[in-house]
Amino acid sequence: MTHETSRRKFLSMAAASGAGIALAGLAASANASSPAGTARSAFGPVRQIDAGPLDVGYVDLGPRDGTPVLLFHGWPYDIHSYEDVAPQLAALGYRVVVPHLRGYGSTRFLSGATLRSAQQTALAADAIALMDALGIRRAIVAGCDWGARNACVLAALWPERCQALVSVSGFLVINRAAAAVPLAPADELSWWYQFYLATERGRLGYEKNLKAFARLIWQQASPEWHFDDATFERSAQSLVNPDQVALVVHNYRWRIGLADGDPQYDTLEEKLAKVKSVALPSITLEGDANGAPHPAPASYASRFTGKYEHRNLTGGIGHNLPQEAPDAFVKAIVDVSRW
Questions:
Q1: What CATH number did the domain enclosing 225 receive?
Q2: Residue 150: closest CA among 169, 124, 174, 175
Q3: What is the CA 53 to chain-centroid distance, rounded?
Q4: CA triple 284-328-325, angle to 5 deg
Q5: What count of other Cβ atoms lies within 10 Å of the Cβ of residue 211?
Q6: What pTM was estimated for this model as a whole?
Q7: Other CB atoms within 10 Å distance of the CB of residue 97
Q8: What is the rounded CA–CA span in Å between residue 332 and residue 313?
Q9: For the chain: N or C, fewer Cβ within 10 A?
Q10: Diameter of the chain by CA atoms?
Q11: Contact 141, 258 (CB under 8 A)
């Protein structure tokens, strides 16, 4: 028996063993989150690879010949949104890749001359470049917040590279024309940070109070999630990145037409604007205590024209759903991968 054969046999046995353990707990604790204050080892190791315009920091778990799953985080979160999800999926035999988006963690631009754009197609193009760099032809794509949008954009623009989709809060592709239409006052109020960041005062405020700002968003977005200081700090450290402020400000200003995009993504944005639906197998998720702005499930159900299911989670689950309800997120990945 060769070394490679032995390795594959070991991984297969480990995955099978993990599958039995993990699946046994999914149904019983689908909405459970890890207890606050529980000691844990570091989520990693964080590897680095050049991909497109970036030196990307990413976690890569599970057998290399397993079904690839790409998990994307949002703002102001980081890869630790999947610190419980990724190991479970790896134990089930999936190859799980969790990258720091541009402006987070150890991800850096390779050139100081690159426009610091955080428009939706820039982030999606980063994901395709990462897949190419890692030799991943096709993957299940999933995410929450900015990461859910990223997964939806990938499914819309590169369906041939995506096996299936899991998205928290539905079809989040930005339509800038629609974003220019005023909302009801109560809905506008929930977007206070977008308007704050549209000002120079807001940019300076975010820069000066980076972690305090992030903690406030966490509390607003997940009012019933009683995360501890250690949990917050693990993610907040990733916001201390030289491009964080510029990219977050650009993202929110670009959405409402106050900042131009990077011209290199114009063609992708034009193509994306014409995509009205996704035909991939898809599952959307929503927590019952999501305090962040989010659409009603009925408003996006028609966007998914392939096999589709929406799941409402109860028990005080907020916006950062993968970290608050990791078992339910794992189950969605496993289920959609079998469709």
A1: 3.40.50.1820
A2: 124
A3: 20
A4: 105
A5: 15
A6: 0.88
A7: 24
A8: 12
A9: N
A10: 68
A11: no
Q: Is the dihedral of CA 272, 274, 280, 284 positive or negative?
A: positive
In terms of Cα–Cα distance, which of 58, 202, 67, 24 is closest to 130? 58
Domain of residue 216, residue span: 3-337
- Indicate the number of domains in the chain: 1
DSSP tag of 66: S
Distance CA 61, CA 137 (A): 17
**Residue 67 burial (CB count, 10 A):** 19
Q: Which two tokens stand for residue 178?
A: 């629609």
The angle at the Cα of 72, spanning 71 to 76, to the nearest 5 degrees, equals 140
d(CA 263, CA 117): 10
**CA dist., res. 235 & res. 290, Å (int):** 19
Q: Would you put residue 267 in left (φ > 0), alpha (ψ -120 to 50) or beta?
A: alpha
**Block residue for tokens 């604007």:** 273
What tokens appear for 217 in the block?
A: 């968003």
SS3 202: helix
Q: How many residues does the chain have?
A: 339
pLDDT tens over the chain, length 339 residues: 433 333 333 333 343 334 443 444 443 334 444 444 445 668 999 999 999 999 999 999 999 999 999 999 999 999 999 999 999 999 999 999 999 999 999 999 999 999 999 999 999 999 999 999 999 999 999 999 999 999 999 999 999 999 999 999 999 999 888 888 888 998 899 999 999 999 999 999 999 999 999 999 999 999 999 999 999 999 999 999 999 999 999 999 999 999 999 999 999 999 999 999 999 999 999 999 999 999 999 999 999 999 999 999 999 999 999 999 999 999 999 999 999
Alpha-carbon distance of 1 to 335, in angstroms, equals 34
The answer to whether 294 and 190 have CB atoms below 8 angstroms apart is: no
